Amino acid sequence: MPAETFEFQVQARQLLQLMIHSVYSNKDVFLRELVSNASDALDKLRLEALRDDTLDSDTSDLHIAIEVDKDARTLTVRDNGIGMSYEEVGRLIGTIANSGTAEFLRELREAKDAAGAEGLIGQFGVGFYSGFMVADEMTLVTRRAGETQGTRWSSRGEGTYTLDTVEDAPQGTAVTLHLKPADPENQLHDYVSPWKIREIVKRYSDFITWPIRMVPDKGEGDSEPEPETLNSMKALWARSREEVSDEEYHELYKHISHDWRAPLETVRFQAEGTFEYQALLFLPEHAPHDLFTEGHRRGLQLYVKRVLIMDDCEALLPPYLRFVKGVVDAQDLSLNVSREILQQDRHIRMIQRRLTKKVLSSLKSMRAADAQRYAGFWREFGAVLKEGLVTDADNREAILDVASFASTHDEEPTTLQQYVERMKDGQDDIYFMTGESRQAVESSPHLEAFRARGIEVLLLSDPVDEVWADAVGEFQGKRLRSVAKGEAGLGAEDGDSAEGEREQRNEEYAGLLGWMKEQLEEDVKDVRLSSRLTVSPACVVSDDHDLTPALENMYRAMGQEVPRSKRILELNPDHQLVKGLNQAYKQSEDRTGLVGTAELLHGLAVLAEGGRPKDPGAFVKLVADRLERAL
C-alpha cells in the first residue's frame, strides 16, 4: 500500500502549532509522556496475553528502550508492547485527541500561567504531541501484537501527516523525534545527552514497573554498547513511608492520573491477615473536565503480586468516589480475573468497603486539620461526593460528617453539625431550599419569613441536592425540611395575629381563594394564604410528598416519564396587590376582568422561583396590558 497523506483538523493544527511554538518552562514533559505511553502499551499487552492464550506475541522481555543518535540528533522511545493496527493509528494518532481537543484549547487559553497550561497536557490525552516542543519531525512505527503488518506515521506538524504500511516492523511501538538544532547557550535541553535522559527518567519514571533501558550512541568501534537500566522499578506502595519522598508519590500520581499536578492528599492503606493487600490512593486537587460525563474512566489500578491485571477497576470504589486515583496490590486473586468476576468477588467487595471508609476518614481528618484546604476540595468534588448520600446508606453518616453546605448564616459553607448547634430555641427542623444557584435561591420569596425571623436555611444548588435531602430525611433527629414544600411550619411569634384573627383573615379571603382556584385549576391544586411571605405578593409551593419541578425535569432528562404535578399558589394577605384584588372581587358582580390579574399573580410566582410561565407570550402580553392601563 503506497503512503497516504492526510490533513489534520483545524483544532488539531492549532494544537500542533501550540506544541511547536511552545513557551512551556519545562520541556522535559515530552519524555515522561512518551515513557508513560510506552508503559501503558506494555501493561495492555500483559493483560491481553492473560486473557487470550492464542495471542501470538512475545512477552519474555517486556521493556522500554530509549535510543539516542547525537550525529543525526534523533531520540527514539521504543517498547515491545501491544502496538497498534493501521486503523488504530489513523483513529488514535491522526485525529489528535478527538474527544478532548476543543476542551483542551479552551482551558489552555484560560490557564493563568505557563505551569497551569503545562498541567493540561496529560489530562487531555495529547501528551504524544508534546514531542513537537523539541522536535521538527516525529515518526512512529508500530505493529500490533498478533498481526504481521506494521504501520508508519510521520508528520512535521505543518498540518498534514502520512500513513503507510511496513512489512518488517517489530512488535510494539517506536517513536522517533528528529530534534531541533541544539542551543549552544542552553545545554539543559539537549536531549541527546545521556545525563539528561537519566535525570528525567529518575525524576519522573523511576517507579514504573517495566525496565527503562537507555541505549547510548554506538560511538567508535564495532562493539555494541551495553544498555543501561535507568529506573529502580520499585513499587512505591510496597516501600515504607520513610523510604519514599513526596515527590516520588506525586510522580506516581501524575503517571496514573495524567493530571501532572501534585495530588491534594496521599492515602496509604495496608490490610493484613487472611487476605492481604496494599493500597496507595490519591485525592486530586482539581476535578477532571469529564468528571460528570458518561464516558468518564474511573477506577483504581489493580495489581496481583505486583502484576498489573486491570488499569481501571471500577469495583474497588463506589461511583461517588470516582475522582480517587491510585493502586491496589492484592496477594490472593487470580491473574486472569475478569471484570464480571470481580464484581461478585467477596474479597473485592471487602476491599471496596475498607477503602471507602479509609477515604472518608481521611477527608474528615483533612477537614479538621486544615479547613481552608478542605474547602477547596469540597468546591471541586462536593457535588459528586453527595451522590453517596443517595446510593450508599451504609456510609451516609460518614459522608454527612464531611459534607459542607452554603447557608444564609454566612458566606462560608457550614456543616449540618454546626447548623444544629445554631438552631433557635423551639426549632425542630433543618430548613433547606434547592435551586440552580446560590444567588437564585437567596432571592426566592420562600425565604422571606425565615429571613425576617433569623432562621437559618441551607442553600442547595447542585442537581443531586434535589434527591439526597429526601433520601436522608433527618440528621440527629432533626427533620430535613424544604421551605418550598408544604406549610411553612413557622408557628406564631409575639406580635403575630392571634389564632382567632388568622381564622378571621381566612374567612375574609375565602371567596377570593375559592374563585382563584377555579380560574387556575389547570395549573394549581389549591390557593391559600401564606405564612412564609413578607414582601412578595405570591409564591408557588409543592405538597410535602410531591416532586419539585427541578426533580421532574431531571427525571425527564433521564428518559423517565413522570406526571406533571400541580402546585399550590400562596398569597400574601398583607401585600397591596392581593388586598386590592380581594376588594375588587368583593365589589364586582362580573369578575371577568379580574381573571388576568389572577393569572398575573400566578405567573409572577412562577418567575420568582426561577420557573417559566406555561405560555410566555401570553404572559408578556398580559404584563404589557397592565402597564398600559397604569399609564
Write up what this structure looks like.
The structure is a single chain. The chain has 4 domains: about 5-230, Histidine kinase-like ATPase, C-terminal domain (Heat Shock Protein 90); about 235-375, Ribosomal Protein S5, domain 2 (2-Layer Sandwich), CATH 3.30.230; about 405-480, Rossmann fold (3-Layer(aba) Sandwich); about 500-630, Four Helix Bundle (Hemerythrin (Met), subunit A). It is about 35% helix and about 20% strand. The chain contains 22 helices and 23 strands. The strands form 4 sheets. A 9-stranded mixed sheet has the order 1-6-5-4-7-3-2-8-9, with helices on one face. A 6-stranded mixed sheet has the order 16-15-18-17-20-19.
Concise summary:
This protein has 631 residues and is of the alpha+beta class. The protein contains 22 helices and 23 strands. The chain folds into four domains: 4-229, Histidine kinase-like ATPase, C-terminal domain (Heat Shock Protein 90, 2-Layer Sandwich), CATH 3.30.565.10; 236-374, Ribosomal Protein S5, domain 2; 404-482, Rossmann fold (3-Layer(aba) Sandwich); 499-630, Heat shock protein 90, C-terminal domain (Four Helix Bundle (Hemerythrin (Met), subunit A), Up-down Bundle), CATH 1.20.120.790.
Shape field: elongated
Give the number of helices.
22
Number of strands: 23
CATH class of the largest domain: Alpha Beta
In total, the number of domains comes to 4
Nearest-angstrom radius of gyration?
32 Å
Overall structural class, as computed from helix and strand content, comes to: alpha+beta
Query: Largest sheet, order of strands side by side?
Result: 1-6-5-4-7-3-2-8-9
Separation, N- and C-terminal Cα atoms: 81 Å
Q: Work out the strand percent.
A: 15-25%
How many strands, which pairing sense, and closed or not: the largest β-sheet?
9 strands, mixed
Low-pLDDT parts are 97-101, 112-120
Helical percent range? 25-40%
Average pLDDT taken over every residue: 85
| The CATH homology group name of the largest domain | Histidine kinase-like ATPase, C-terminal domain
The CATH architecture name of the largest domain reads 2-Layer Sandwich
Can you tell me the CATH topology of the largest domain?
Heat Shock Protein 90
